[in-house]
């Protein structure tokens, strides 16, 4: 099982209302993708934290993650939600199955 965590810093003009809309849109659009097994979306609690927002997507394997990232819904999400609103991002990918060799993920 693969978990990809994306951390985002938003552009200065993004309001709290826009962030709420982005979170809602993330859930409604990404959960339509068949390969998405689980999705978490959240905003920061403390102003001192460096990242404003995060998105966590779980998929069965790296191949399934690649398939979901090639999905039209995902491209639309990136174009309409991420690209206009995100200033900086960091993407981390993890294997979640214990004792599984990551080269077989």
Automatic annotation (TrEMBL):
<dbReference type="InterPro" id="IPR013097">
    <property type="entry name" value="Dabb"/>
</dbReference>
<dbReference type="Pfam" id="PF07876">
    <property type="entry name" value="Dabb"/>
</dbReference>
<feature type="domain" description="Stress-response A/B barrel">
    <location>
        <begin position="2"/>
        <end position="94"/>
    </location>
</feature>
<dbReference type="InterPro" id="IPR011008">
    <property type="entry name" value="Dimeric_a/b-barrel"/>
</dbReference>
<protein>
    <recommendedName>
        <fullName>Stress-response A/B barrel domain-containing protein</fullName>
    </recommendedName>
</protein>
């Amino acid at each position: 099982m693969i978990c990809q965590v994306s951390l985002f810093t938003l552009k200065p003009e993004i309001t709290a209302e826009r962030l709420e809309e982005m979170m809602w849109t993330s859930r409604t659009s990404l959960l339509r993708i068949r390969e998405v097994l689980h999705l978490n979306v959240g905003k920061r609690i403390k102003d001192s934290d460096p990242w404003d927002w995060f998105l966590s997507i779980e998929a069965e394997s790296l191949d399934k993650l690649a398939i979901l990232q090639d999905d039209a819904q995902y491209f639309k999400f990136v174009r309409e939600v991420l690209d206009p609103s995100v200033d900086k991002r960091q993407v981390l990918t993890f294997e979640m199955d214990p004792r599984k060799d990551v080269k077989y993920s």
